[in-house]
Amino acid sequence: MDISNRTVFIAGATSGIGLELARRFAAAGSAVVVGGRRTDLLDQLAAEGFATVPIDVTDQDSVDRARDTVLHGHPGLDTVVTMSGVMIPEDLRDPAHFGAAERTIDTNLLGTIRVIDAFTPHLIGRGTGTIVTVTSGIGFLPFPLMPTYAASKAGVHAYSEALRAQLDGTGIEVSELVPPAVATTPELAQSNPHALELAAYATEVMELLRTDPTPHEILVKGVLMHRWAERDGTYDELVAQRSQALATLPGRR
Length: 253
Description:
With 253 residues, this protein is an alpha/beta fold. It is built from ten helices and nine strands. A seven-stranded parallel sheet has the order 3-2-1-4-5-6-9, with helices on both faces. It has a two-stranded parallel sheet with strand order 7-8. The termini are far apart.
């Protein structure tokens, strides 16, 4: 991907990885539209020079309005990144977890599909473009403390594979960004010393995006242990290690 002259819409880029990638695309010379739910953060990013649009990926009307706004202001849009997502711990022994499961699937999986559906006709009409979906190392190596998050990201992976096959021949490439744990805040860096530093992660991602052809999966070195755990025979051991976090649930020891 030539990242220096793209027109990019990133849904869910008001903070964290999405915001860092927005800044990297902009610094490389691309036009970037940042989408998100929080209007206060959108206002700050507008003052920084970004085009912004409100979007709630769980609301079809909001997604449609965002699409219309983005395409009106940026008819040459050629890249869509589906960054929106939530990560919620769940206790599967407690039926009350179901609300968190619904919210997670609605945001991470159905939200991704809504955004893709909204922009696919435009990209097909152009005859060229890129869709970047966002999954997680947890989609390949579950973190039992966040079971529906893992399931939602595994679902996005499978959907990305099918989307790539169905769009074959249209000129649209589909690339799946697979982050490991990334220290998007100082608190996360403190709680998880193994998390990658955000700037270093973004640098590696942008280097991989520049690869010709654009990889089907954007795999930084830090996520390879997750992606290939089953192949490498480390899956059971690593899931057992990650299951230790279940002790943090109320009433668990």
